[in-house]
Structure formats: structure tokens, C-alpha cells
Amino acid sequence: MPRHVDHDGRRSRIVKVTMGLLATGGLRAVTIREVARQLGGSVTLVTHYYPTRSAILDDLASQLIEIWRQEVADIDAGTDEPIERLRQYLAWALPTRAEALRREQARIRLLAERESEPSATATFQAFDATMRWDLRRHLEGLVDDESLEFVVDLLRVAVTGVTVLAVEHEGRWTPKKQLQFADQLLVTVGIMEPDSPSP
């Protein structure tokens, strides 16, 4: 009887190893040989699914966006209150959890080296489009239509800035400080009252 192979699970493991290599060593660390070594198999274990490093990176973007969509759907299901849903989304978007920090370390390293990897540009465009769509959706009804795009830009820049600071200064930009910053930003743009509770 032929052995059943979980192809989706194998692809997912390859992408997860790739993300770990990116987070710790950047693009130079990501080779098909090293991914295979980390998985404990031969190069063909990887090339069966991904013939090139670019193919792995393309799928990394697709898989992360799919994971993000599911995680955001789970967050949104937790409350019907729009401001709380926005706060929970921002808490998710910031690197307040170990897995999110590792994901952002990988993303920032890829960003720094994107000139040497043509597929990286498409990856970042997909990430940005997904983040902006989510922000727009979470802001609808909380800001007027005229201000919506400005507030989307403001929150996008703020999340990116805090993320970079959290990666650069992990001990200084603690999860608590990141969440306090996000709440203060929502107060500043008039979405929350100054005396609203912090998470």
C-alpha cells in the first residue's frame, strides 16, 4: 500500500523553515540545500515542491496571507464592538507575540535585501495590500469617509514603525508598550476617548 504524504503539511514546513532562516540570517541563509538540511531530508524533498528559492518565497507570502486571514477572522469573531475589534486587530498586527516578532524579523530582513530577490517586491505588495484592506475594513464606521484613507495611512505607518522598533529594540518596545502606543494613537485620531481602558 502506498504511503500517504501530507503535501500541504510538507509545503507548510518548508515555508516555516524558510521563515526561520530569513529571520536569523536573511536571504543569504535561505538556500534549498539549507532548507532541506533543516528538514532532515535531501534537496529533492524541497525541489519536489519548489524548484527555486523564489518559488519558496512566493509561497511564503501566499501562506502567510492565508494564515493572517484566518487569524483576523478569529479575532473579529471575538467581539461585535467596532473599537474593540480595531484594538484587537492592531494588537495582532504588532509584534506582541513571539511568533509575530519572528515573522516580522523575517519580513524586515527580506525587505532589506529585496533588490537581490525579484520576487520580494511582489511579496511586499501583497502584504501591504492585505494590511491596508484590513485596516480599511476595521475603520469603516469609526472615521468619516473623507478621513478614511488618511487614517489607514497613519495606522499603517505607525504599525510599521513600532514593528521596526520592536525588532531593533526588543527589550524596550515590550508588548505592553506597543499596545499603549496603539491606544494612544486611537485617542489622537479621535476614535477612542482619552480615559478608555488599556488592554
UniProtKB/TrEMBL annotation:
Keywords in alphabetical order: DNA-binding
Show the PROSITE patterns listed in the entry.
Answer: HTH_TETR_2
Q: Which Pfam families match?
A: TetR_N
Q: Where is the HTH tetR-type domain?
A: 8-68
Q: Which domain of life is it from?
A: Bacteria
Q: Which residues bind DNA?
A: 31-50
What protein name applies here?
Helix-turn-helix domain-containing protein
Q: What is the species listed in this Swiss-Prot or TrEMBL entry?
A: Nocardioides oceani
Traced from the root, the source organism's taxonomic lineage reads:
Bacteria, Bacillati, Actinomycetota, Actinomycetes, Propionibacteriales
